[in-house]
Amino acid sequence: MSDTRRYIRQPIVSVLGHVDHGKTSLLDYIRGTTVAARESGAITQHIGATEVPIDAIYDVCGDLLKGKKFTLPGLLFIDTPGHHAFTTLRARGGSLADLAILIVDINEGFKPQTYESIKILKQYKTPFIIAANKIDAISGWQKNNVSAKERIEKQRLNVKNIFEEKIYEIIGTVSEQKLNADLYFNISDFRKTVGVIPISAKTGEGIPELLMILVGLAQRFLEDKLHIESGPGIGSVLEVKEEVGLGKTIDAIIYNGIIRIDDNIVIGTVDEPVVTRIKALLKPKPLDEIRDPRERFDNVDEVHAACGIKISSPNLENVIPGAPIRAVKNNLDKVIDEIKNQTKIDFELDEKGIIIKADTIGSLEALIKESRDKNLKIRKAEIGNVSKRDIVETDSTIDPFNKVIFAFNVKILPEAKEELSKVDITIFNEDVIYTIMENYDEWYEKKKAELEKERRQDYIHPGMIKFLPEYVFRVSHPAVIGVRVLSGRIKTGLRLMKEDGRIIGSIKGIQSENKSIDEAIQGQEVAISIEGVTVGRQIKGEDILFTDLPASDAKKLRDMDVLNIDERDVLNKIFEIKRKSDKFWGM
Does residue 487 contact residue 570 with C-beta atoms inside 8 Å? Predict the structure, then answer.
């Protein structure tokens, strides 16, 4: 066989969506159906992937594909946790998936992982369709084996109304993501509109239409992309696993070329790429045999793209999920440089920024992108668990907003947890990037308000009060009167002055509803006690009084952005009062 022959590989299809919305059930149904429909070995489940040959698709789709011929050999479904696999499997800086199915529970609609999935799909510009799953769970839904359009029409009116309400809610949510969507049978151009296919992974309704749309889209729009060389294999590491009797192994998706048992391979790691020799290429048994635990794998001599495979080799300790893998015949140095460039993530470091930790290259890239979109500076971004060193480095940051670690799908090591208890830093540790960013936004607003409050308390703030004449509780020693805080705030210990700048005394105490308080803010009516004044002499009902600010505090408050509009207005009035006797006051 010539190593330069071109052929069409099967498209790689990733299934994404929120937990429990039916990713696994959909693939289980497809596997079960195609195994039942196969003629001779029509389906094989590989590592992290399920191959569905075109003959099996013809069988499942029946009359839907009558008279249609495809050059595609079939479809390869990525069979691992949806959005994790999608970001892990990378090819040349983009997603390895040629197509994707975004699965949405029709009764629950969009959830955090759904939003995250659609964001990833948009980021990688991956064509996708939406499987609106669990139509069977709509109250009163009747199963029937006709086309989707007829199936909907045959439902009772109230059931049809519920279905349409839920489906258009999904279409509306997609529209909010700046994409067009519609039921697939209403679409004339799938390049402009996302197709929505109502399905039940439980009963199988809509699965034939789903497979029909996938092969149709792949054949029509992806054929050029699927023409590949039969040269040295190129792939992406899905997982690194410890296997009994084999030690460290890698599960990989090969998307171009051929990998053979005697090949040397170059794989990306945390540091320099590793060059190693294949000891074994292991292919799981066909699906209906894999349940027998005595013989889990077949040893094979070679595999062709696109496929999933387990590779046993020495020196796999530092290999990372998402890393590129290349079989190499010659030009070893060139291949090593290429792998190094593919593994490297370019972003600007700032020693004042945050720390990011993730489980794979793809998820690290996604977190870096999200952080950049928020204009966050990044001190360090790497694959691996959160260590004690990460905690110490984060704590050394002066900016309180950067005392943060984003930790996606990784552990916090025991010594890191111990260190964490001694310091004031925040770790956002989630397995959904969307949730990390949402939680960060919430934390940021709270932190901002908390720091604002602390900062405001560092200075004497402007306040303006009105003496309520009907509330004179004591005339003197000390005078106790009722006031309304017109703007700003008053606190115990602050001096008060009149509109002509005369100081009348200090606030000794503040009471609200017979309880002592330290501070009263705009809108409150409280009783205050003032030593050194007599009602009717120094102060009278209806008087407007101001807090007396030190000139240095007034200057800083004017320069800082900590006052609201009303407080700033009061501050300006205080400046006017003070500058009548000292024109340079607060300069």
Answer: yes
